[in-house]
Amino acid sequence: MGVKESLHSTKRKKKSPVSRGGGRISKSDKVLVAQFVAHNAGDVSPVQERALAKVIRRSTEYTKQLIDEAREKFIARASRYVDIHLATTEKALAGDDPKSLEVAARASQWAIEHIGSDGARIVDKATTESSGAKIMIGVQLAEMIGAK
User: What is the 3-state secondary structure (H, E, C) of 36-50?
Assistant: First the structure.
């Protein structure tokens, strides 16, 4: 077997697009990761990381790095978002009409429920489900109707 024949007999393994780590990441992919981080306030699960890696066609390790960078940028801008929220709420409060006051009340309520530090909030969000035990009582109507 000659050199030419041995080159043709070896099959090259095709790289998976998920593990492709070469090249620069596009702006649209960076925007996608930033939006993903902005909409996921908590930690990103490994399943979410793998899914995002598949979407942007990068390795999971590289995607984790992109998520961390996007989270750092988002956190750095947090004080600006709070300033905008406060300024808008103040402007709505300065309005004398009922609609402006309603906007200010909703904005301040949102802030009270969402602003916190180290996992502690100013107030806990109201839940619609009670935390007590539920008791289900069943009644057989057929027996009651037949008893007449």
Answer: HHHHCCCCCCHHHHH
Residue 117 backbone dihedrals phi, psi, to 5 degrees: -145, 135
- In the chain, the number of structural domains is 2
Do 72 and 91 fall within a single domain?
A: no
Distance CA 29, CA 27 (A): 5
Give the CA distances from residue 105 to residues 85, 86, 130, in Å, rounded to whole numbers and listed in that order.
Answer: 12, 12, 26
Query: What range does the domain containing 68 cover?
Result: 27-76
Q: Tens digit of pLDDT per residue, the chain (148 long)?
A: 555 555 555 555 554 444 455 578 888 888 888 888 888 767 788 898 899 899 889 998 998 999 988 888 888 888 888 888 889 889 888 888 889 888 888 888 887 777 766 666 666 655 555 566 666 665 555 555 555 5
d(CA 89, CA 65): 36
